[in-house]
Amino acid sequence: MAMVKDIEARGMQHCETTALGVLLRHEGLDLSEPMLFGLGSGLSFIYWDSKGMGFPFLGGRVKPFELTRNLAAALGLELLVEETTSPRKAWQNVAAPIDAGRPVALQLDSYHLDYFTNKVHFGGHVVAMYGYDEQDAHLVDTDPQGGAVTTSLAGLARARAERGPMTAKHRSFTITVSSGLRTPQDRIIPAIRTCADAFLNPPIANLGHRGIEKTAKQVPKWLQRSDNPREDLPRAAVLMERAGTGGALFRNLYRDFLAECTQVIGSSHLRTGHSLYTEAATLWTQVAALIAAAGESGEAKNLTQAGSMLHELSRIERDAMQALSLL
């Protein structure tokens, strides 16, 4: 058995920030989950639909692993990333740091993890690994998934080898906090402005505030879009609220990040952004509830109301990001 010492196996709300928290606390840097998310410029929006998809997907954050790269660049962390097509090499890439006393993070498909009760393929899932024996791997996942958990080595291997949307080639990574660490408080404004710029100037209409406006036009059609609305619509609502988003499609996390920032930065623009994201978070939760109700009842009026709220959300988030871009 190999086990990293002094691991605080604290599960948080979102998978990537949970794993980052484990790695950074082991290095002596303890930041809140909203701060990790915000310094990683994690907030975004995407409306994703295609002919090959059974039902549209609403995403509220940047693509998998981009948050980690952003955070490492912002704070001057040493990020060592390993990828390979070889399962044997992939195992060496995680066993070596653990044997040396360091936790490692893995990107994988959660479908194959033993402790996941909701068996849905998601190739952008991230966990921290801090130990293994002959049969099992010892992981830290989100609090809703159990925090400190175990899965079979065979299941872990399948999860890492899976291919499909958002998967990576057995990706693993470690983080080192070096003497060149930048003070987190000094990186708040650049991180916020990076996030705001991407949100306000999306390259395609499916992203950012334009993506929310597009969603407002599409959601009222969702009863016709689905072959099984009683399953698809409530599932979409669950993904928005409880599938590692922290609630309100990551808006709760960003609201709390901005609130934490107001404690160290005195700015009317920051206070405006926080106030608007507080409003946005409440509305996103209401939208999810309306989508679920539409699926359960078959009543289109719920989707019409959700569409109206999404029009308003596009405006609110655009105004919030415009204020934040002025920091």
From TrEMBL:
Residues 14-142 form the Butirosin biosynthesis protein H N-terminal domain. Residues 155-324 form the DUF4872 domain. Signal peptide: none annotated. InterPro entries: BtrH_N, DUF4872. Pfam families: BtrH_N (PF14399), DUF4872 (PF16169). It comes from the Bacteria. This is BtrH N-terminal domain-containing protein. It comes from Streptomyces cinnabarinus.
